Amino acid sequence: xxxxxxxxxxxxxxxxxxRQIIDLCNEAKKYxxxxxCVNSCYVPLAKHLLSKxxxxxxxxxxxxxxxxxxxxxxxxxxxxxxxxxxxxxxVINIGFLRSKNYxxxxxxxxxxxxxxxxxxxxxxxxxxxxxxxxxVKACEICVDAKADFIKTSTGFSKSGATLTAVxxxxxxxxxxARIKASGGIRDIETALKYIDAGADxxxxxxxxxxxxxxxxxTKY
Length: 220
Description:
It is globular, with a radius of gyration of 16 Å. It has 220 residues and is α/β, with parallel strands linked by helices. The chain is built from 9 helices and 8 strands. It has helices at 18-31, 43-50, 70-82, 94-98, 102-116, 132-144, 163-173, 188-197, 207-212, and strands at residues 7-11, 35-38, 56-61, 87-91, 121-124, 149-151, 178-182, 201-204. Helix 1 packs parallel to helix 2 (43-50), helix 3 (70-82) runs parallel beside helix 5 (102-116) and helix 6 (132-144) packs across helix 7. Helix 2 links the parallel strand 2 (35-38) and strand 3 (56-61). It is 43% helix and 16% strand.
C-alpha cells in the first residue's frame, strides 16, 4: 500500500509562517502526498508551489469552530477555489446540530456544496464534541446534503480521530460518501488501522515522520 497517497499533509496552525508553508509543499512534492491542507490565506502560495505537480491543495472553511454564518462559509469556499483550492474541508455547525436544528445544519452544508459544484467537499464533524447518536445524525445529514467526505476532527478540540467513530461513520454512510480520519494520527501503524476501519484519506502533520519511520510529537 502506498500510504503517501492517502495523506493530506497538513499545517493549520494559525501562527504558521510562509516559510513553513513552503517547507510543507516541498515535503509534499518529495514524498508525493495526495495533498497539502492549509488555511485559506495560504491557498495561492501553495497552488503556486505545487502547480506543476500532482499534489492537490485543500483549504479549510469555517475553521476550526464551524460557527460562522453559512454565507461566510460559502464565500470562503468559493474564494479558496478561485485562488486554486482543489478540495474544501468545512466544519459543521456543531451548535446547530446539538440543538437539533437539523434543517440549518443541512442548509449550511448544502449551500456550500451547491456553491462549489463538483469540487470535493469534506465536512468536519468534530467527533469529540458529539455523542454516538449525534455522529450518526450528522452523517445522515451530510449524505443528504451531498457531501463527498465525512471528516472526523479539526485537530483543535480536546481529542482527534477514534477508530470507534470511524466505524460508526462507515456503518452509517456505507458507500454514499468517503471518510477522512484526522487528529492525532502520527505513525504508519495507526494510519493503517484507520484505513482498515474504512478511512479513505488521512489528515496529518506527521506525514514525513511516517515516511521516515520517525516519532512525531505534533498535535494534528
